[in-house]
Description:
The protein has helices at residues 14-36, 123-127, and strands at residues 47-48, 51-54, 59-64, 70-76, 83-90, 96-101, 111-116, 135-137, 140-142. By secondary structure, it is an alpha+beta fold.
Amino acid sequence: MARQKRFTLGSPNPAKHELITVMKRMLIFFFFLGVLGEAPLRAESFNPADAEPLMQDRALLLQLEPGTRRARLQVKNHENGEWEVVQVVHLEGEEGFLKMRVPDDLALEDCRAEVSMTDPFPYRFYKGETEFEQKETGGIFAGGGPFLNDAAGAPEGDR
Protein backbone atom coordinates (compact mmCIF):
# COMPACT_ATOMS: atom_id res chain seq x y z
CA MET A 1 0.00 0.00 0.00
CA ALA A 2 1.42 3.33 -1.06
CA ARG A 3 1.63 6.14 1.47
CA GLN A 4 0.02 9.40 0.58
CA LYS A 5 2.00 12.54 1.17
CA ARG A 6 0.35 15.45 2.89
CA PHE A 7 0.80 18.82 1.33
CA THR A 8 0.17 22.07 3.10
CA LEU A 9 -0.42 25.30 1.35
CA GLY A 10 1.59 28.23 2.60
CA SER A 11 3.72 28.44 5.71
CA PRO A 12 2.42 28.37 9.27
CA ASN A 13 1.43 31.73 10.73
CA PRO A 14 4.60 33.00 12.48
CA ALA A 15 2.64 35.34 14.77
CA LYS A 16 0.44 32.47 15.96
CA HIS A 17 3.47 30.23 16.44
CA GLU A 18 5.23 32.94 18.48
CA LEU A 19 2.12 33.48 20.61
CA ILE A 20 1.85 29.77 21.36
CA THR A 21 5.55 29.64 22.28
CA VAL A 22 5.15 32.61 24.64
CA MET A 23 2.07 31.03 26.21
CA LYS A 24 3.95 27.75 26.78
CA ARG A 25 6.80 29.63 28.46
CA MET A 26 4.36 31.55 30.66
CA LEU A 27 2.63 28.31 31.65
CA ILE A 28 5.97 26.76 32.64
CA PHE A 29 6.96 29.94 34.54
CA PHE A 30 3.69 30.07 36.50
CA PHE A 31 3.90 26.35 37.26
CA PHE A 32 7.35 26.78 38.82
CA LEU A 33 6.27 29.99 40.53
CA GLY A 34 3.37 28.11 42.10
CA VAL A 35 5.60 25.24 43.20
CA LEU A 36 8.62 27.25 44.31
CA GLY A 37 7.30 30.78 44.68
CA GLU A 38 6.33 30.58 48.33
CA ALA A 39 9.50 28.85 49.54
CA PRO A 40 11.83 31.90 49.56
CA LEU A 41 9.43 33.91 51.73
CA ARG A 42 9.05 31.29 54.45
CA ALA A 43 10.16 32.26 57.94
CA GLU A 44 13.09 29.83 58.03
CA SER A 45 14.93 31.73 55.28
CA PHE A 46 14.84 34.98 57.32
CA ASN A 47 16.69 35.81 60.53
CA PRO A 48 16.10 38.63 63.03
CA ALA A 49 17.86 41.82 61.95
CA ASP A 50 20.16 44.01 63.99
CA ALA A 51 17.68 46.93 64.10
CA GLU A 52 17.71 50.17 66.05
CA PRO A 53 14.37 51.97 66.52
CA LEU A 54 14.37 55.62 65.45
CA MET A 55 11.51 57.16 67.43
CA GLN A 56 11.55 60.61 65.82
CA ASP A 57 11.44 59.14 62.29
CA ARG A 58 9.05 56.26 63.08
CA ALA A 59 11.47 53.88 61.45
CA LEU A 60 13.81 50.97 62.08
CA LEU A 61 17.45 51.35 61.11
CA LEU A 62 18.93 48.00 60.02
CA GLN A 63 22.63 47.31 59.89
CA LEU A 64 23.22 45.09 56.86
CA GLU A 65 26.07 42.60 56.70
CA PRO A 66 27.79 41.80 53.39
CA GLY A 67 25.71 39.33 51.39
CA THR A 68 22.31 40.43 52.73
CA ARG A 69 19.89 39.98 49.82
CA ARG A 70 16.47 40.75 51.38
CA ALA A 71 14.98 42.59 54.33
CA ARG A 72 11.39 42.54 55.45
CA LEU A 73 9.28 44.49 57.91
CA GLN A 74 6.57 42.65 59.80
CA VAL A 75 3.80 43.95 62.06
CA LYS A 76 1.90 42.07 64.72
CA ASN A 77 -1.80 41.49 64.07
CA HIS A 78 -3.47 41.88 67.47
CA GLU A 79 -6.60 40.00 66.37
CA ASN A 80 -4.86 36.67 65.68
CA GLY A 81 -1.42 37.31 67.24
CA GLU A 82 0.45 36.49 64.02
CA TRP A 83 3.14 38.52 62.28
CA GLU A 84 2.25 39.89 58.83
CA VAL A 85 4.72 41.08 56.18
CA VAL A 86 4.13 44.71 55.17
CA GLN A 87 7.32 45.43 53.24
CA VAL A 88 10.03 43.42 51.46
CA VAL A 89 13.19 45.05 50.11
CA HIS A 90 15.46 43.28 47.62
CA LEU A 91 19.14 44.18 47.99
CA GLU A 92 22.37 43.81 46.03
CA GLY A 93 24.19 42.21 48.94
CA GLU A 94 26.36 45.15 49.98
CA GLU A 95 27.20 46.11 53.56
CA GLY A 96 25.51 49.23 54.94
CA PHE A 97 22.38 50.57 56.60
CA LEU A 98 18.73 50.40 55.58
CA LYS A 99 15.97 52.59 57.02
CA MET A 100 12.52 50.97 56.99
CA ARG A 101 9.55 53.22 57.80
CA VAL A 102 6.88 51.93 60.16
CA PRO A 103 3.21 52.45 59.25
CA ASP A 104 1.77 55.52 61.01
CA ASP A 105 -0.92 53.72 62.99
CA LEU A 106 1.46 51.20 64.63
CA ALA A 107 3.79 51.32 67.61
CA LEU A 108 7.44 50.44 67.03
CA GLU A 109 7.06 47.63 69.58
CA ASP A 110 4.58 45.93 67.24
CA CYS A 111 7.13 45.82 64.40
CA ARG A 112 10.09 43.61 63.70
CA ALA A 113 12.65 43.44 60.92
CA GLU A 114 14.27 40.34 59.47
CA VAL A 115 16.97 39.79 56.87
CA SER A 116 17.83 36.97 54.48
CA MET A 117 21.03 36.05 52.71
CA THR A 118 19.08 34.45 49.84
CA ASP A 119 16.77 35.70 47.12
CA PRO A 120 14.91 33.68 44.47
CA PHE A 121 16.05 35.99 41.64
CA PRO A 122 19.13 38.10 40.94
CA TYR A 123 18.97 41.77 42.00
CA ARG A 124 18.81 43.00 38.39
CA PHE A 125 15.46 41.18 38.01
CA TYR A 126 13.86 43.51 40.58
CA LYS A 127 15.29 46.68 39.06
CA GLY A 128 13.12 46.16 36.00
CA GLU A 129 13.42 47.82 32.63
CA THR A 130 11.78 51.24 32.40
CA GLU A 131 12.31 52.15 28.75
CA PHE A 132 10.77 50.10 25.97
CA GLU A 133 10.75 50.74 22.26
CA GLN A 134 9.08 49.03 19.30
CA LYS A 135 11.19 47.55 16.56
CA GLU A 136 9.68 46.45 13.28
CA THR A 137 10.65 42.91 12.33
CA GLY A 138 9.12 41.66 9.09
CA GLY A 139 5.56 42.87 9.63
CA ILE A 140 5.44 42.31 13.39
CA PHE A 141 6.41 44.91 15.94
CA ALA A 142 8.50 43.47 18.76
CA GLY A 143 8.10 44.95 22.22
CA GLY A 144 4.64 46.43 21.86
CA GLY A 145 2.44 43.52 20.96
CA PRO A 146 1.70 41.61 17.74
CA PHE A 147 0.59 44.31 15.32
CA LEU A 148 0.42 43.16 11.71
CA ASN A 149 1.17 45.46 8.80
CA ASP A 150 -1.81 44.37 6.75
CA ALA A 151 -5.33 45.34 7.67
CA ALA A 152 -6.73 41.81 7.75
CA GLY A 153 -9.95 41.74 9.67
CA ALA A 154 -10.47 45.49 9.51
CA PRO A 155 -13.80 46.84 8.23
CA GLU A 156 -13.88 47.67 4.50
CA GLY A 157 -13.55 51.44 5.03
CA ASP A 158 -10.48 51.09 7.28
CA ARG A 159 -8.24 49.09 4.89
